[in-house]
Amino acid sequence: MSNSLYVQYGCGFCAPESWLNFDSALTVWIERLPLIGRFYSSPKAIGESQQVKRCRFPEHIRYGDIVRGLPVSENSCSGVYACHILEHLCLEEFRLALLNTFNILKPGGIFRLIVPDLEIAAKNYLSSDSPTASIEFLKSTMIGTKKRSIGLKSFLKNALGSNSVAHLWMWDYKALSQELLTVGFSDIRPAHFNDSEDKRFSEVEEKYRFVDAVAIQAKKSV
Questions:
Q1: What Cα–Cα distance (Å) separates residue 171 from each residue in 39, 84, 163, 197?
Q2: How many helices and strands (H and E) does the chain possess?
Q3: Maximum alpha-carbon separation in the chain
Q4: So what's the pLDDT on residue 2?
Q5: Residue range 97-134, pLDDT digits in tens
Q6: Are residues 34 and 64 in contact, defined by beta-carbon separation less than 8 angstroms?
Q7: Beta-carbon contacts of residue 118 (< 8 Å; ≥ 6 apart)
Q8: pTM given for the model
Q9: 157: phi then psi, degrees, rounded to nearest 5
Q10: Which domains are delineated in the chain?
């Protein structure tokens, strides 16, 4: 295996040991605490019935927040992967995340990212004759709030979850490409499942995550 460094952030439970995986869920931080962490596990919905099972994050996953900066040296990564995580950031946080991603990549390093495609959702909404089209649009983009709970229990549930459920900013290919250009990325192109010239990305990519999504590959200029 190559000694090159490959980083995935916002990994959730999908975290191959061949990569350095980070997640910003407080659950990860708690699980890594001495004594207390041994007795804590994260609730995770599984199966079509969405039954909840208590699961621990794999031990090799590290706590880390790309917005604040990961404990990774600048110009050290051959590849960085972010799958369905950047849409959970507000615009200001998103731009910090892109800058921090750019900084940890080596010159020539590859960044591949996937987010839900706002353009597809908007076209589906505009082409629908259903009286509930707007409701379905808000559900599909996850930018609407069906029910808001209050109280300590709700706060702890949201804080300790793997990632915020709500989408705070949505993207299409054109806007996302422009943001990457602004940071300094080059060779920006649409990405498809397992089409990177760097085959290490096949270790983290899952085909279903590309459905109805904007997937992009970009490089840090040499």
A1: 39, 11, 18, 25
A2: 6, 9
A3: 56
A4: 55
A5: 999 999 999 999 999 999 999 999 999 999 999 999 99
A6: no
A7: 141, 170, 171, 172, 214
A8: 0.85
A9: -60, -45
A10: 5-116+162-220 (3.40.50.150)
